[in-house]
């Protein structure tokens, strides 16, 4: 299957700082990528759809000014958590869709964010 | 996208087949059934998907009922490494369509 990477795999930051997470499709181009958040013992919650060359589409209840998404190329999308607070501590996961027959999506390994 | 219903948890003996059911009674004609799994603290892993025919790959088999209202994911010889949360998702197979995750089934493979 297609490979999606994320960097960093984990990050610890102080409250009030900003953190950037990168998502890359390594062996395919992805016009659309997705960002999810997962709290302990819960399922994945879709945060936003990242579109190359245009603004991201955010799910209801997700603050677009707090979670900045940039999709500057067909292989890279970034999520920046601005002014992070302890309640933003979570597992952030990205996915990218392939342009194959049935448009399967493949996921990155996730980034564990801990805000102190 | 149509909703799915899965059992909360299941146990399976190592080496035996694991059969994970999924109900999707409101599925539309152009919606596919996708299966993903998530091992603890990792990103979800794609397993298999299908429209109406049964599908098989190196990981699993997918059996879809004729009326498409339910399906079963089969792991033919479960190992301890198959312990994970398994998600059944119904979605139109069009590029750019998002995946909406439910609670999934916790599969515990026991020796």
Describe this structure in words.
- The complex is a heterodimer of chains A (116) and B (111).
- Chain A has no helices and 11 strands.
- In chain A, the strands form 2 sheets. In chain A, strands 2, 4, 5, 6, 9, 10 and 11 form a 7-stranded mixed sheet that branches.
- In chain A, a hairpin with a 5-residue loop joins strand 5 and strand 6 (57-58).
- Chain A is mostly beta strands.
- The mean pLDDT of chain A is 92.
- By secondary structure, chain B is an all-beta fold.
- Helix content of chain B is 0%, strand content 47%.
- Chain B has strands at 9-13, 18-23, 31-38, 45-50, 55-56, 61-64, 70-75, 84-92, 105-110.
- Chain B has a 5-stranded mixed sheet with strand order 1-9-8-3-4, with no helix packed on it. In chain B, strands 2-7-6-5 form a 4-stranded antiparallel sheet, with no helix packed on it.
- In chain B, strand 6 and strand 7 (70-75) form a beta hairpin.
- The mean pLDDT of chain B is 93.
- Chain A binds chain B through residues 1, 4, 6, 31-32, 34, 36, 43-46, 49, 91, 93, 95, 97, 99, 101-110, 112, and chain B through 32, 34, 36, 38, 41-46, 49, 51, 87, 93-104.
Give the key terms.
heterodimer; A: about 120 residues; mainly beta; 7-stranded mixed beta sheet; 4-stranded antiparallel beta sheet; about 0% helix; B: mainly beta; 9 strands
